[in-house]
Design goal:
The chain is mostly helical.
Length: about 90
């Protein structure tokens, strides 16, 4: 039958063409997903690194304030001890 011959000839190329398009689509979709996941991982790495640096600075600040206060207190105590020492030595002379 000549009329069926034309339909059967184009059917395999149509099926193969659809299959090829589906394969290409899924390969492109997988590549895009991989690139997206890589970008998200890179972004999170940069975010965590910057957050860690700021967290370290934030935790460091109270200790620096405590150190300055302790130094001020030690200097004041040393000054008072020196004055007391001078007064006590002055009373012996």
């Amino acid at each position: 039958t000549p009329s069926n011959y034309g339909i059967t000839q184009s059917t395999p190329s149509l099926v193969c063409g659809v299959a090829s398009v589906m394969v290409i689509f899924w390969v492109v979709a997988a590549a895009c997903t991989l690139l997206g996941a890589t970008y998200i991982a890179w972004s999170m790495k940069a975010y965590i690194r910057s957050r860690t640096e700021t967290e370290l600075l934030r935790y460091q600040e109270p200790w620096q304030v405590a150190q300055v206060l302790a130094q001020d207190l030690a200097q004041e105590k040393a000054r008072l001890m020196e004055e007391a020492s001078k007064r006590s030595m002055g009373s012996f002379y």
